[in-house]
UniProtKB/TrEMBL annotation:
One of its GO terms (cellular component) is clathrin-coated vesicle. This is Clathrin assembly protein. InterPro entries: ANTH_dom (IPR011417), AP180-like (IPR045192), ENTH (IPR013809), ENTH_VHS (IPR008942). PANTHER family: CLATHRIN ASSEMBLY PROTEIN, OS09G0468150 PROTEIN. Its main location: cytoplasm. It comes from Hibiscus syriacus (Rose of Sharon). Residues 26-134 form the ENTH domain. Keywords: Cytoplasmic vesicle, Golgi apparatus. It is found in: Cytoplasmic vesicle, Clathrin-coated vesicle; Golgi apparatus. Pfam families: ANTH (PF07651). It comes from the Eukaryota. Gene3D superfamilies: 1.25.40.90. The keyword Ribosomal protein does not apply. GO terms for molecular function: 1-phosphatidylinositol binding; clathrin heavy chain binding; phosphatidylinositol-4,5-bisphosphate binding; SNARE binding.
Length: 134
């Protein structure tokens, strides 16, 4: 019985490592550190909040070009909309909350521009994870 949570932790670690490796191979060199900071802030580990160091790196991107900030917001919203893991979705929402509360004007502006465009989309959770268990 205790082996299933351990197996799930191992699977989550492997998924996080694979996501970071994929980002390292496919991301533009200008935004690679921001993509990695986003992936590290929104890990699959359900017991740890987003690391403040990585949140600060994302918030610091708000003082760069609008194109870079747009890439960060798009990556955050893409991660939120494509995940099937509740802890990743929660961490994405926490990151968006930090952008709204502490982010620069450019970050907040790009987030506000992106949200109406994505208004028709929903989160990608199976019904079994949403319904409460009795």
């Amino acid at each position: 019985m205790g082996q299933i949570p351990i197996l799930m932790d191992i699977i989550g670690f492997i998924k996080d490592s694979a996501s970071q490796s994929k980002a390292a191979m496919l991301s533009d060199t200008k935004t690679l550190s921001l993509h990695l900071a986003l992936l590290r802030a929104t890990t699959d580990d359900p017991f740890t909040p987003p690391d403040p160091k990585h949140l600060d790196a994302l918030l610091g991107s708000g003082y760069t070009s609008r194109a870079t900030v747009s890439t960060v917001v798009e990556a955050l919203m893409d991660r939120l909309q494509t995940t099937r893991d509740a802890s990743v979705a929660l961490k994405c929402l926490i990151t968006a909350h930090h952008i709204v509360k502490r982010g620069s004007f450019i970050l907040q502006d790009q987030l506000s521009v992106y949200l109406p465009m994505a208004a028709g989309t929903t989160l990608n959770f199976p019904i079994s994870e949403i319904t409460p268990r009795r």
